[in-house]
Structure formats: structure tokens, C-alpha cells
Amino acid sequence: MSRSSLFALVATFLAATLAQAFAAPKVVTTIRPLHSIVANVMGDVGSPVLLLDGATSPHTATFKPSQAQFLQDADAVFWIGPVMETFLANSLDTIPQNAVVKEMMEAKGVTTLPLRGKHDHDHDHSHSKKKHDHDHDHDDHTKGNDDLSEETLDGHIWLDPQNAAAMALAIAETLAEKDAANAETYRANAKTFAASLKPLSEEVAALLKEVSGQTYFVQHDAYQYFEKRFGLAQPVPVSINPQTRPGAASVRALRERMAQAEQPCLLSEPQLGSALADSLVADSGGRLGVVDPLGQNHEPGPALYAALLRDMAASFKACVDGS
After folding, report:
1. Which H or E run includes 237?
2. pTM for this structure?
3. N or C: which end of the chain has fewer CB within 10 A?
């Protein structure tokens, strides 16, 4: 082999080694709002993989073989938690090989709320279940009630922008540990994203101020983080669990209550069946609104999270006050 050929071979090897050393980590996320937060943190460094695209609900999704490969190759996996992505819990115990798995409901600074009907108080969740065998990152936050199991918690944590800010900062630290070369970029991006949520929250609060305290009905009791952050009244739920239809007695009670209200508002979601909602609204002469807490009508990416909150606020206002 000539000297020039040897130099070329060495140069190619070094270039490949350096490229591998500085390649963006392979990051996997589950739902669109979380994907958007991770995308904001990663910025130009790389793009996270979204497991649940399309109109699939994390409550009813099934695990697919194609998703297993993403998990197996991942350096980091971010998810909300087993109370939300129920289809994924067992797979995260066995499939990822070298990934750090970050459960956002356990992230430092994230406030969780109990499912309504289970407890009547807010708390910061202190995780008590057995740790998984692989490299999960469990933050220690010990405020609040330690006796609440994860199954009693409401998993829609991203609907509070203060939680989204805390999630971004936690994501940045996780990625910084995996990719030290870009650590400061992740941290700076997370701070920028968190700062952008303050004017966004003020904008949403101003839009919803006029409907604060007004009664409304929801097909899926999924919005309490949003409601509490922006001063909305607690709704009358058609169902707490989207996987089960309410019983006949509950439906009769809802019909009576909606019939007593003046032009009642019932909020549904894109992925939920509309037959019951349509029937309730038709019987009461009310309004049917559609709220999209998963951002399914938006292109995945950094801009989705802000668009999701703005659209939710507009949908709430339009349905509740008839605008």
C-alpha cells in the first residue's frame, strides 16, 4: 500500500471516529407534546424520534415491532409514565440496551395532581414503586403525600406550562450527561424554551379570563392541569377513563344536568368516539367543542407545544361562551 493510500485510509478512519464521537444522541419520545419539548431542547443538535404519530391515543395504543428497534437503538428515552403510555411500560423494562429512560412524572420540579375522584388535594409526587433494572433516572422529590400510588395520578402533566418548563430543564440535564460535547447547548435551549412559556401563559390566561368560573362538560376529564393553571372551573366529566363508557345511570344524570344548563358546552377530543357526545349535545341543545391536548392536528416539532396551548384556549373559549 502506498503512503498516500495509507494516509487516506487513516484520514477516513479518523473522520468516521470523530463523526461517531460527536454524533447527536439517538433520542426517542412518545407523544407529540413531549416530542415538541425535547425538540426545543435539542435544537440544531438533532431530532428526536416520535413513537406515537398520527391519531393514536397513548391510552389505547398497542406496542409495535417497529417501535422496538427505536427503543433498542436509543441513547435516551423520554416518556410521561405508565399512567399515560400504558402500552410501553413493560417494554421499557426489557428492550432499551444502553438508554437512560426518563419518566417525566418523576422529573425534578414537575408537579403532579391526583385523578379527580381519587383525592381532593394537590401534591408533589414522591415515587415509591420499585425501580426498574435498567438505567432509569429517578429524581428525588419528597414534598407532599408519599402514600399515593402512581395509578391514582393524572398523567396530563404537560398541560401546565410550568411543568413543561421543568420537563425541559430535566431533559437538558439528561442529554448533557449523555452528550457532554453539546451540554451547554441543551441547557441554553431549555432555558430559552422555559422563558418563552411566560408570555405564552400570559396570552392564554388573558384569552380565558372571560370564561373563568363558567360551567362546562368534558368527555374525558383530562384537563385539570390546564384548568388549574389558568383559573377555569372544574368541569362535569362524562367519563374519567377514556377506555370505558359511562353506565346508563351516569348518562341519564348527565342528560338531565345538561338539559338544565343554558346552552351547555361539551368538550370532546379528536381520538374519542363522538356518538355519545353528539347525542348529549343534541338532546340538550348545547355546543360541542373539540380540544386537542395531544396536538394531533399540528406538525410534530418545536412549534407544536405553543400551538397546542393556544388552540386549547381558543377551543375552551369558543365552546364555553359561544364565541
Report:
1. strand 236-237
2. 0.81
3. N
